[in-house]
Amino acid sequence: MDITIHASYLPQDDPEAAIGFYRDTLGFEIRNDVGYNGLRWITVGPAGQPGTSIVLHPPAADPGITDEERKTIAEMMAKGTYAGINLATEDLDSTFERLQAGDVEVVQEPTEQPYGIRDCAVRDPAGNMIRIQQLR
């Protein structure tokens, strides 16, 4: 089998802040920006990797979600416990410096983890945990 990861989904509750973080801070390309009923789905991805994307979607937009579930999702996003993604880079220190210059919320500075990787963690504007590890 030849299966790849095409897209992952992260919630966003402020499209302009999401674009600012993913495009201007991380350097990702905006691949698609679709509006529907006052909501926006924004597809971003790393330059030079057209087959890998992140879809930044409105939280709880699914019509099957109850009001109580919407409230829970909003509470979890506010705490930063709803969603996250792991990224990787060749130069973690330079990437971390760029993130700090972009005024992001730092959760963890570059650290050697006991499980064998070196990584850092920040939150995007919606509170999603973004962990970035050093490629070996």
From TrEMBL:
Cite the VOC domain residue spans from the record: 4-135
Q: Which Pfam families match?
A: Glyoxalase
Show which residues constitute the signal peptide.
none
Query: What SUPFAM superfamilies does this protein's entry cite?
Result: Glyoxalase/Bleomycin resistance protein/Dihydroxybiphenyl dioxygenase (SSF54593)
Instruction: Enumerate the InterPro entries for this protein.
Output: Glyas_Bleomycin-R_OHBP_Dase, Glyas_Fos-R_dOase_dom, VOC_core
Q: Which PANTHER family does the record associate with it?
A: GLYOXALASE/BLEOMYCIN RESISTANCE PROTEIN/DIOXYGENASE, GLYOXALASE_BLEOMYCIN RESISTANCE PROTEIN_DIOXYGENASE
What is the name of this protein? Answer: VOC family protein
